[in-house]
Amino acid sequence: MYISHLSLTNFRNYTTQEIDLPVGAIVLCGDNAQGKTNFLEAIYLLATSKSPRASADRELVNWSTKGQDMPFSRLSADVSDRNGAVQVEIVLTAQPGGDDLEQDRFQKRIKVNGLARRATDLIGVIRVVMFDPHDTDIVSGSPALRRRYLDATNSQIDPVYLRNLQQYNKVIVQRNSLLRMIKENRAHSDELEFWDEQLIETGAYIIEKRLQNIEKMSLIAGEIHQQLTNETEKLEAVYLESISGKTAQDITSSFRESLKRAQRQEIARGLSVVGPHRDDLRLLVDGVNMCIYGSRGQHRTIALSLKLAQAKYIHNTTGDSPILLLDDVLSELDSERRRHLLNTTKNYQQAVITATDWDHFDAGFLTTAVKFTVSSGTLEKTQ
Ligand code: ATP
Ligand code: MG
Q1: Ligand 1: does its nearest atom lie under 6 Å from the Cβ of 378?
Q2: Residue 63 CB–ligand 1 contact under 6 Å
Q3: How far is the centre of ligand 1, averaged over its atoms, from the C-alpha of 12 (Å)?
Q4: Which residues of the chain carry a pLDDT beneath 70?
Q5: Over the stretch 67-82, which tens digit does the pLDDT of each residue have?
Q6: Phi/psi of residue 131, nearest 5 degrees
Q7: Is 85 in the same domain as 143?
Q8: Number of folded domains in the chain?
């Protein structure tokens, strides 16, 4: 799939930008703080309804709208895939009442082909895989980041997964507050059963799909990693589940057992301690745990292997080539890995690659790419 046209109004440092995008490799080059990451963020947002970095929607709206009557931001993309053309639009509008952009709450409205849709309906309309320097945190950071990697993959190929995940997260919040109330003798432990059943139902689906998908993704990541390391390293990704079982039925019954066993502890802590929100992904190179023992270079290469595996897996399972978004990653890679990565972009219908310097690309690659210079929130086509 590819985006043929992108329109941004008051998004980050873009005031108005209308841009036709071609298939193939697109290079955005510009100095620091010109709008390269913002541009990729806009595409990511249109694909997932979420920003990969903003903690509140108000951060996305151009500061210059501050003080205006109705501050808003609008993003839209025309997308083509094997089924035809689709238009996706997201509009952020300040909620009445606020008079300070630092405090304002923004309402997010999503439309697909002009019709109002929920965030979950966006799944599959635009599929993206984004890779940026922070992705080394998948290897070196907390388990939450590795779970997020799994969830991002699974949600893009399976809307049911996303719905279960959203529901599961809500149940955890409700259940934690009930556990705290039981601890304080303000509720009875019988009330847990209702939430436990919901936790088990949604959680078992999450575990089952994570197990199934990581098994296949690990093989793909292993192959890519071998190429990236000239066959010297063997990467394996293994799901570390707190609840055993392979089939939905096995997982469900051992989930129920585990909850029973942990109930006293959960009440004492006022916290849900059993379930997929506690699971992790072990990343092994030749059997050694890279989260603990990996070098920085290894972390970088593993993160790249995982992201390229994510893209390939989404491609294999959906039949649609996701859009690759590579933000500022070339300068961090050695020439061999850089060549491999740029070569890989040819397997995707569209790839948007940012850099601060044209020298990060070899001349051959640049002749095949469409080039834009980014400056103060404006893209200009460059020969
Ligand atoms: P770098 O090479 O340093 O990564 P970049 O080109 O990727 O730079 P962006 O992250 O896209 O830069 O940010 C461009 C500019 O947009 C920054 O100066 C940032 O402060 C600004 N910016 C961020 N949010 C908003 C906003 N809501 N309104 C206006 N400008 C914003
Ligand atoms: Mg940037």
Answers
A1: no
A2: yes
A3: 7
A4: 97-103
A5: 888 899 999 999 999 8
A6: -130, 125
A7: no
A8: 2
